[in-house]
Task: inverse folding
């Protein structure tokens, strides 16, 4: 789908996957004017195909588009385009329990612009790929390192929207952490350097007794759809949930730590390294709460549990 600045997107079309043509001075290539989303389609046992809360991705894209000075498809256009793309690629959706089809919507300033300004023309496209587990560990615990020098977001910046530049900003810290054997990096706030923000591509939760806490959304953390869903699932399961400032001390003192995201679903954290200390959780096993929430969420997403919240969109 294409549209000019100040106009609305018209209906798109399906195209075979392949390279796209862009001007060397396209807004996305020079000034990072790009936003993306990530969703998954699961195959159910009866052959149906399920999407999880796609209208939430549409809304987040639209909110991000305001920050990035871009026009965006309507919620209906977004959801229809996702459905059409998934149905056209049905043969790539793994069988039940064997993975999912990852869906990547991308909105970009595709028009040519030389001086710094919003691009004159925009392209919205969607591509898909079958995927298994995000971390090679699967539901086995991941090992995180707290980053004390580099930040992925600063107050007033773009950390709260899913813009491409946020991901470029994490590559150095993430690569260094992986080279040392860690699974990923946990970022701190850039002002006090003591409040947790999130991991490179997922939100973080700490569990203490019956209380599950996660950093409050305040412009520097991506408002994850899995995060929002897990807060509701946890309440339904009788946990007390808190969105607040979560400190490094809370983290090191937690019974369990886990991360949430479309790609990672729920990843239990087995250890945290902070400066010179390393804390392990749950005897290197998968914590009880992480396991319970993982089961609740994935059985919903795969169509094995009743969808009482109305979160599932069936495609057939
Ligand atoms: N934080 C960041 C930086 C992310 O890239 C993602 C993945 N979209 C998340 C959190 C989790 O968001 P969601 O649950 O919507 O996938």
Result:
């Amino acid at each position: 789908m294409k549209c000019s600045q100040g106009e609305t997107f018209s209906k798109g079309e399906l195209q075979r996957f392949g390279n796209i043509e862009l001007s060397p001075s396209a807004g996305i290539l020079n000034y990072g004017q790009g936003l993306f989303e990530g969703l998954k389609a699961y195959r159910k046992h009866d052959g149906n195909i399920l999407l999880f809360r796609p209208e939430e991705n549409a809304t987040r894209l639209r909110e991000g588009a305001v920050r990035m000075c871009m026009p965006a498809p309507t919620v209906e256009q977004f959801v229809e385009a996702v459905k059409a793309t998934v149905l056209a690629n049905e043969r790539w959706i793994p069988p039940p329990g064997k993975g999912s089809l990852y869906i990547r919507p991308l909105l970009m300033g595709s028009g040519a612009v030389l001086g710094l300004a919003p691009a004159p023309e925009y392209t919205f496209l969607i591509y898909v790929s079958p995927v298994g587990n995000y971390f090679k560990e699967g539901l086995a615990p991941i090992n995180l390192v707290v980053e004390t020098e580099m930040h992925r977001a600063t107050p007033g910046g773009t950390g709260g929207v899913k813009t491409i530049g946020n991901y470029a900003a994490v590559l150095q810290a993430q690569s260094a952490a992986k080279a040392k054997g860690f699974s990923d990096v946990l970022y701190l706030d850039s002002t006090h350097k003591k409040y947790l923000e999130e991991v490179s591509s997922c939100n973080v939760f700490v569990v203490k007794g019956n209380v599950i806490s996660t950093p409050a959304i305040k412009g520097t953390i991506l408002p994850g759809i899995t995060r929002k869903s897990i807060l509701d699932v946890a309440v339904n399961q009788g946990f007390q949930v808190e969105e607040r400032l979560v400190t490094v001390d809370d983290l090191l003192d937690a019974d369990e730590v886990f991360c949430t995201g479309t790609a990672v679903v729920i990843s239990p954290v087995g250890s945290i390294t902070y400066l010179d200390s390393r804390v392990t959780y749950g005897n290197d096993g998968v914590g009880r709460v992480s396991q319970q929430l993982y089961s609740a969420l994935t059985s919903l997403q795969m169509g094995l549990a009743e969808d009482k919240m109305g979160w599932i969109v069936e495609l057939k």
Q: What stands out?
A: Residues 38, 198, 201-203, 222, 224-227, 260-262 surround 4'-deoxy-4'-aminopyridoxal-5'-phosphate (CB under 6 Å). Residues 77 and 263 are 23 Å apart (CA to CA). The two ends are 24 Å apart (CA to CA).
